[in-house]
Amino acid sequence: MSQFDVVVIGAGPGGYVAAIRAAQLGFKTACIDAGVNKAGNAPALGGTCLNVGCIPSKALLQSSEHFHAAQHDFAEHGISVSGVQFDAAKMIERKDAIVTKLTGGIKFLFQKNKVESFFGYGSFKGKNGDLWQIDINSAEGVQTIETKHVIVATGSVPRPLPLVQIDNVNVLDNEGALNLTQMPAKLGVIGSGVIGLEMGSVWKRVGADVTILEAAPTFMAAADQQIAKEAFKYFTKEQGLNIELGVKIQEINNVSNGVTVTYEVNGETRTDLYDKLIIAIGRIPNTKGLQPENVGLAVDERGFVVVNENCQTNLPNVWAIGDVVRGPMLAHKASDEGVAVAERIAGQKPHLDFNTIPWVIYTDPEIAWVGKTEEQLKAEGIEYKKGTSGFGANGRALGLGKAKGTVKVLACAKTDRILGVHMIGPMVSELVAEAVAAMEFKASSEDIARIVHAHPTLSEVLHEAALAADKRALHG
C-alpha cells in the first residue's frame, strides 16, 4: 500500500496549489481528482474553476466583447467594418483550447514538483495507527493509500433548483452555459450573481434577448450599493439586460420548444418562454462521496466541513480548504488557503486575512472591491470618510473608449486607515490589486494619495479617489 506525507483530495485552485506547495516543502505528496475533460475520455485537473468556471467564462466574455466592439465601437475610431458575423461554435472552440492548455499545465507542474496524481473519487476509509486511509474510487476499482495528513479540497457544485432538473440541453448550469454552440434568441437566467451576470452579458452582447430573474429585492446585495446602483443602470438602461428583482419563481417546465417560467414580480404573475434557461442561484459545498461519517469528520448543517481559523478540522492532521469550508467561494481564496495549510504542516506560521480578499465580476464595465462596504461601516457604527472619482475625465479611459465608472475609497475618520475600496469601470479587476496591497500593509488614504501614479493610466482614478477622501481632489 502506497504511503504519503500529504494527500490532497481535489485538484481545483485550492487542491492543486496545496499539493504543489506541500511537495516544494519536501513532503511526499499525492493529489486525487475525478475531473474529466469535455469529451469525457481523459482526466482533467483544475476543478470547476479551470474546466467549467472562471477561465472558460473569461474566454467567452472576451470573445463577446470583441464582437460587440466590432459592431458598435469601431466606427468612432475611424474603422469601418461590414458583414460582421458571429460563430458561436468557433467561440466555444477557442475557449476549449485555452482550458486544454491550462489543464495540461497543471499536469506538467505535478510532474515537475513530483506530485503523484491519482484519478478517481477520494473518500475516507479509516485509520491505521497514525495514518489515514483514503480510498480512490475509479472505473478500474478501488485503491487504498495511506497518509499522515489529508487536505480536503473538494470544492463546490451548483445549487439545485427543486422546480426543475438540469439537463444541460434546455435547462443549463454553469457547465451547460459555457458550451452553447448556437446563440439562443431568448435566454432566461435565474440568479443575478457572478455567473448569472457574466453569462447574461456574454449572450446579450452577441444578440440574445436576456432576462435575469433575481429573488432578492436588492441588486448585488454583497457589493457597495453606490457601485451596485451604478452597475444596474449600465446593465439595464444602456446594455439592455432585463433584470427583475424580488422575483418568486412558481413553476418551470422544460417543453419541446424551450423552457417556460412562471413567476411573480411586483404582485403580477407572468409566464415567459425561453429558448434556454440558465440556473445560477449559487453553489453548495461538495462532499458527495467523501464519506466523512467513516472517520467522524465534522460537517455542518449546510454541508460545509467544519474548520477553525487555520483550516484544521476536528480530526488530527485533517485539513480542509476552499469552497468546501466557510468563507467566500473564490478561487484565489482557495489557493491561498492551500498554500497556508501546506506551510502550517511544515511548521510555518502563514496568515490569511479574509478582510483583504478581493472580489471581481467580469462584466463590462468590470466590478471589483475589497474590504468593507459603506453599508457595513454604517451598520457597525464605524466613523468613516469617503472619496470618489470617476473614469469620465481620465485620459486613458477616454482613449480606450471606456470612460464609464467610479472608484470609491472608504477610510477611518480618525486614523485615515483604508477600510474598503470599491470600483466599477475598465480593468478594475487589475486596479483592485493596489487597494489589496495597501490594505494588507495597513495603509491610509493619504499613503495612496502621496504615491506617484503614472500618467496617463487608469490607476490615476484610484489616486484621485484617495485625494478626495481628504477633500483635496485635483481633477474633480
From TrEMBL:
Residues 4-338 form the FAD/NAD(P)-binding domain. This is Dihydrolipoyl dehydrogenase. Its EC number is 1.8.1.4. PROSITE patterns: PYRIDINE_REDOX_1 (PS00076). Binds 1 FAD per subunit. It comes from the Bacteria. The keyword Flavoprotein applies. Residues 357-466 form the Pyridine nucleotide-disulphide oxidoreductase dimerisation domain. It comes from Alysiella filiformis DSM 16848. The active site is a redox-active disulfide bond. FAD binds at K58, G122, T154, G155, S156, D323, M329, L330, A331, H332. Keywords: Cytoplasm, Disulfide bond, FAD, Flavoprotein, NAD, Nucleotide-binding, Oxidoreductase, Redox-active center. Its cofactor is FAD. It catalyses: N(6)-[(R)-dihydrolipoyl]-L-lysyl-[protein] + NAD(+) = N(6)-[(R)-lipoyl]-L-lysyl-[protein] + NADH + H(+). The lineage of its organism: Bacteria, Pseudomonadati, Pseudomonadota, Betaproteobacteria, Neisseriales. It is found in: Cytoplasm. Belongs to the class-I pyridine nucleotide-disulfide oxidoreductase family. GO terms for biological process: 2-oxoglutarate metabolic process.
